[in-house]
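thread from #wetlab-drylab

HS: before we spend reagent money on co-crystallization trials with uracil, can we at least see a predicted complex? here's what I'd submit
DV: go for it
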Amino acid sequence: MDKPAAGSTPHTFRAVDLIRKKRDGGELSRAEIDYLVRGNTSGDIPDYQVSAWLMAALLRGLSRAETAALTDAMLHSGVVLDLSALSARKVDKHSTGGVGDKTSLVLAPVAAAGGLAVPMISGRGLGHTGGTLDKLESIPGFNVNLPVDRFLSVLQKCGCAMIGQTAEIAPADRKFYALRDVTGTVESPYLICASIMSKKLAEGIDALVLDVKTGSGAFMKKEEDAVFLAELMVETGERMGKKMAALITDMDQPLGLHVGNALEVEEILDVLRGEGPDDLRQLCFELAGWMFYLGERTSTVAEGKQLAEKLIRSGAAVETFRSMVEQQGGDPGVIDDPKRLPQAKHTMVVTSPRDGYVTAIACEQVGTACVILGGGRERKEDAVDPAVGQVLHKKVGDRVTKSEPLCTIHYNSEDRAARVTQLMEESYRIDEAPPRQQRPLIHRVIPTTGEKN
Ligand code: URA
């Protein structure tokens, strides 16, 4: 493990000058950015000055060089995993978050079964979106809080390991993020880029595939905003010597059919067994194809996709998942018997008010409904109910008849279910005619260079 750079902040600059410089649209040097990040991490530069600088950065933007310098400074504020003892290429995937977005749980074992090492450090649900850690914790016993040495030993044994951010990884991002959260500066694409990339690069990876979501259930509702962020992250990663690609993918309706932690684990087990809904399968194969390509396991993305399909058909991927679950203390029995996952006490069906076609599903609202059921957090300190959520029976483009089920709500509290029933009824738009155009699942790919497909 590489240790963070030690020592107190050299007093070469004054924080107030760096705030003024950014306020007036200037470009900070690498040394100036290092000074700010180190100074705040060590406590020498107070939060109010960093907050002022963050607001100036949000309003003025950062150059590509400043974004890379900020990423690098935050990355080196903590430990960077040294995975050089592993001969496999180290590849990860990061998603900007959505509803029913469960691909990590398929991709880690698929990529590991195909010979890559996947050291995945993931997050919890944020706002209306679900989080990988919450999903994994719905598997009884699964421990996402492994110390780094245990994380590395699982990685060595299984080819993949999945944990949450530790205190040693990018501590400057933790401090900056907490300030952004309360100063209206979360939304800057430059600051988002540095925050995400510093944590991902601390995993010691060679390559990273980004799944940048766009649509009503994504944080970036507009495609141009998603593309801007994706390009920024790809360029930042490449500047730091990583192989990068970003897929802009659809989040205008939930991905797959299951929303909610244990329900989503059940669905990924279907995919790992070669079943599951088409959109989820297609996205998993596409992202896995890119992971194999960037990880130099295949010479094209198309070959990577074929390899992923083969690893699922042969059962190798599900066996890798089983061994990771076992190594991380989870009940491997859930793999053959998903009913061992937490089950909600009650279910209730929401039906269609009329004949017609589903023309839209308010995706963010579906995510919020899951949070209200208890599947996410309304406040930081809330406990998550792993069993609750929704199973969709109809998606955009499907024909429905009056009284036909649209979705089933899995719940443990009558009060919450009553609120959610109305939200789910309102989330479905049913029109006489089918939608004129279906949105594509993959909107575009932002590649590095060369022949990819
Ligand atoms: N996720 C992060 O880790 N950081 C951000 O800034 C936004 C989303």
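DV: Confidence is low (pLDDT under 50) at residues 449-453.
HS: ok that's useful, forwarding to the group
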